[in-house]
Predict the 3D structure of the following.
Amino acid sequence: MSTTTAHWLHQAVTRIEADFCRSADTHLIALPLPGFARHGIDLYLKDESTHPTGSLKHRLARSLFLYALCNGWLQEGSTVVEASSGSTAVSEAYFARLLGLPFIAVVPRTTSQEKIEQIAFYGGRCHFVEKAGDVYAAAQQLAQDTGGHYMDQFTYAERATDWRGNNNIAQSMFEQMGRERHPVPRWIVVGAGTGGTSATIGRYLRYQCHETRLCVADPEGSVFGAYHRSGDASLTAPGSRIEGIGRPRVEASFVRSVIDRMIEVPNAESVAAMRALTPLLGRRVGPSTGTNLVAMLQIAHEMRTQGQTGSLLSLLCDTGERYLQTYHDPAWVRTQWGDCAAAQTGIETQLQG
């Protein structure tokens, strides 16, 4: 490595680490659900929307940049390219700007306008494809054409984060739960886009010898549920219509063996649960958080029926302000899935415990 290259690398890593030191940890929210609480069951959401770029993917983007830098894949002036449904691209655009690097996001044309505008705000630009399955080849080609680097979150997410600790999301969860009534959760529920978060949490649970079990909530149309049942990595599916989670193909970062259970969630229920959280939290959340809540409620009702007590912990993945023109627009939802009123009534009934 030349002196000039080493100097730029050291500056880049230092800038990312300094940015991390400027950011506080994300909050843990106890959901006010007395119907469950009186039966000894407590539900929590870790609020990842409070990251500087507004979503869980801020953690992944930081890890991917450090991984690429320390592997020697990013150089001064390199164009960074990523295949994304939006949130990872927003966060990677932030870190690319921090390092003074050009950034291109390859996103499906259906990506919310709010996310597209945020990518542009951080200095990135979007390259649109028609289908989610088209992002991979397009991103590889753009990286080749620009002489840049394809970050490839779907391959590297599960290995870019240190799952043993080092301020990862799992370690933060357990530290924040330390003074709760049930400090070691009976279940952690997450969604999967790349599979990086579920891999990090699943490995951490085993490394720390916790009895906590891991459930992945998978949206309708995603391939992960079928893959978890069969182990057939060649499977494909139509693809998720819940932005940020679910995939049409089995991704390299999805580690099936660390997941104890998968719950497949209909789209109408994801949207209904997303809406039902607004009066509980006093603000909007994104649709993947709704998917998580549906799975949490199913497990919580099973626990109550079986006379079990304990805590369940999941993620508030991003803010609902990213979806004002889509998932939070009743007219848009009706054109996609029809009237979700019955599903919302069902979720609100479940929230009563």
